Amino acid sequence: MKTFENTVNGRRVGSARSFESKNPATGETLGLVPHSTPEQVAEAVAAARAAQPAWAARPDAERQALLMTVAEAIKANDEYLAEWVTREQGKPLGGVGPDQVPGARFEIWGCEVWTQVPASLELPVEVAFEDDTRRDEVHRKPFGVVAAIAPWNWPLLIAIWQIVPSLRAGNTVVLKPSEYTSIGTLEMVRIIAEVLPPGVLNTVSGGGDVGAALVENTGIDKIMFTGSTATGARIAAAAARNLTPTTMELGGNDAAIVLPDADPKAIAMGLFWGAFLNMGQTCAAAKRLYVPDNLHDAVVAELKALAEAMPMGNGMEPGIAIGPIQNRMQFDKVVSLVEDAKAHGATVVCGGKETGGPGNFYPVTLVTGIADGSRLVDEEQFGPVLPIIRYRDVESAIASANRLDVGLGASVWSADIGKARAIASRIQAGTVWINQHGTIHPMVPFGGVKSSGWGVEFGVDGLKSVTQPQVISVKK
């Protein structure tokens, strides 16, 4: 069985200890992943610190050109990397085309695009103030060494969101992939590090102890984390001890509100994939659906028809739209939430039963007859289950959307864009979509409010977030 390796200072690095990476669709072991030691974490940070001054000193145009070469390397290896995503994370291979389900190939295409866009951006000197007596300029400087901790749901794409803007701005990076999906991420870094100077991009793999050693290292100048609110709180506490700045994209429980004038047939597909893209394992997926009395039954019927038509199985097989839940811990949480809803009188419209057999498969599940306060409504399920809650007036739906201490995304569905805009402005979320859900873009800032985190990624604002301003004030 192959043992994969980390990249540290341009070299391939193993470890005395290792752990298995498993295929969530079959249960088979895919390979062994090194468990980095505290000394190896320190070595990776030291390599990044040593490489950072020369990397930052390069002209912007050189860093931009190298990152465009990184995008080319990703594209040249796209099918290899996509297959690793499917085998290790579970999402179907899918594709990018309009008639294909966004899956692993879409994720790798996203890696390419989210490399090209930051590489193309400029951060010019800004003149904050100027008169006859003085000129005040704002220059953007890198932090230094960025610690990036990537999740298991979009393991390569979210890693790129952390890596590429950091490198573009002149930082160097030490990345810890999720212990559930390490191999694909390590392989991607191996491929793209070959076109970068040694030490600019490094990896350390392992469990929470490795992540803790990384964020607690005093050689780290900035932390980027995507994951659960609970883990984010622990990382923030560690960062506070060293006064290390952070960008946190944490848990969400996105509300989607259908207005009484919406057309159930017209919105059904958008609602379905807004909730069930990547088996619902997306931070900004629709996880609570509020539907008015007059449309409730029609919306449920449309979603049920779609759910029952979507083929579920091993994503390496053709024609598969829905894959497994990535890991058994998450699978058990989804089962627990559905069983709790059943026990309290909710109605399971479709799904709701374990499929049995190998793999972490759980059918797309729609639950009605449920209300705010239920565990399935109040806790982020992060799986292929959607509670559908009736409402009588829009004011109560807005109050329901805002009642939880999370605010990553939300959506409003209506035939009247003006009315939808007015409601969107009242929802407490970092992004509110209208007649769509979860449709991110590399030029549009993305981040959460409340317990869903702080800071933004993507676009110019995201690039600025991995820099610190320096004012140069000149007396005339």
Automatic annotation (TrEMBL):
Active-site feature positions: E249
Domain Aldehyde dehydrogenase: 17-471
Superkingdom of the organism of origin: Bacteria
InterPro entries recorded: Ald_DH/histidinol_DH (IPR016161), Ald_DH_C (IPR016163), Ald_DH_CS_CYS (IPR016160), Ald_DH_CS_GLU (IPR029510), Ald_DH_N (IPR016162), Aldehyde_DH_dom (IPR015590), LUC3-like (IPR044086)
Pfam family name, one: Aldedh
Annotated segments matching region Disordered: 1-31
Alphabetical keyword list: Oxidoreductase
Coiled coil ranges: none
Family, similarity comment: Belongs to the aldehyde dehydrogenase family.
Protein name according to UniProt: Aldehyde dehydrogenase family protein
